[in-house]
Design brief:
Blueprint lengths: L7 E2 L5 H15 L1 H4 L7 H16 L3 E7 L4 E11 L10 E10 L8 H15 L4 E4 L6 H6 L15
Helix pairs in contact: 1-3
Length: about 160
């Protein structure tokens, strides 16, 4: 018998665990761009500050978590931005998934899928017309299974 997965909104007391899980995510992405050690610890305290703000003051952010035995097993962050409407975006409400991550001790239990389903429901409730994300090679099959396809725009970035 399978048990339902306990997905719940993150609380301010989850911030330290959310920072820990985000660091795990960056470690698995590899390279200097994402290497958490190359940035020192300043980014962790900045992240904690932003997470506290988003959890208490931002209606356009949703952070979902799965509790573990002694901390969080998994988390995922969704945001919605108001862009300019166009023929490809009737209302300009674009969702973004910002790093779904599962602690290695809890992987292969469906936690990321459950978090993504919760986020996708939230995006639909908030009338987002599109959801964007960046996927690791390991996570790409999950996202494709949930209906994500290749983005029509080429992505470029400039690190300032």
């Amino acid at each position: 018998m399978t048990h339902p997965i306990d997905v719940r909104p993150a609380l301010p007391e989850d911030v330290a665990e959310l920072v820990r899980l985000r660091a795990l995510l960056f470690e698995t992405l590899g390279g200097d761009f994402f290497n958490p050690e190359s940035a020192g610890d300043d980014w962790r305290s900045a992240l904690a500050t932003v997470l506290k703000e988003k959890l208490t003051q931002d209606d356009n952010t949703r952070i979902l978590v799965v509790p573990g035995h002694d901390g969080l097993a998994a988390c995922g962050i969704g945001t919605i931005e108001q862009w300019f409407p166009g023929p490809h975006s009737r209302n300009g409400r674009i969702g973004h998934v910002i790093g779904v991550v599962t602690d290695p001790a809890y992987r292969r239990r469906g936690y990321s899928r459950a978090i993504m389903r919760g986020l996708l429901d939230w995006f639909a409730e908030r009338d987002a017309v599109r959801v964007d994300l960046y996927a690791s090679h390991q996570a790409e099959p999950l996202y494709r299974d949930l209906g994500f396809t290749d983005h029509p725009d080429p992505a470029l970035c400039l690190r300032l």
